[in-house]
Amino acid sequence: MPKMKTHSGAKKRFRVTGSGHVKSKRAGMRHILTKKSTKRKRVLRKAGAIKKSDVYQVKRMLALV
């Protein structure tokens, strides 16, 4: 059987932690930053967790399932 390939877009966007959770960068930090508050931008800097309903699809794209 052929090997399952990793989705190129997914491997750039998601990272799996040691405990198996999937994290990614939050959206909204690319442009139009002047009107966003400092607090909002500070929160957006941190990595976000993927919703539980999407974890299976992301792990499948990363060839972990």
Can you put this structure into words, describing what you see?
The chain has 65 residues and is an alpha+beta fold. The protein has one domain (8-61): Factor Xa Inhibitor. Helices cover 32% and strands 15% of the residues. It contains three helices and three strands; from the N terminus they run H-E-E-H-E-H. The chain has helices spanning 8-13, 38-45, 55-61, and strands at 14-16, 22-25, 47-49. Strands 1-2-3 form a three-stranded antiparallel sheet. The longest helix has 8 residues, at 38-45. It is elongated and about 55 Å long. The mean pLDDT is 95.
Secondary structure class reads alpha+beta
| CATH architecture title | Irregular
Distance between the termini: 16 Å
What order do the helices and strands follow? HEEHEH
Helical content, roughly?
A: 25-40%
The coarse overall form would be elongated
**Tally of individual helices:** 3
Strand content: 15-25%
The CATH first-level class comes to: Few Secondary Structures
Characterize the main sheet.
Answer: 3 strands, antiparallel
The whole-number mean of residue pLDDT values reads 95
What is the tally of beta strands?
A: 3
Over all CA atoms, what is the radius of gyration? 15 Å
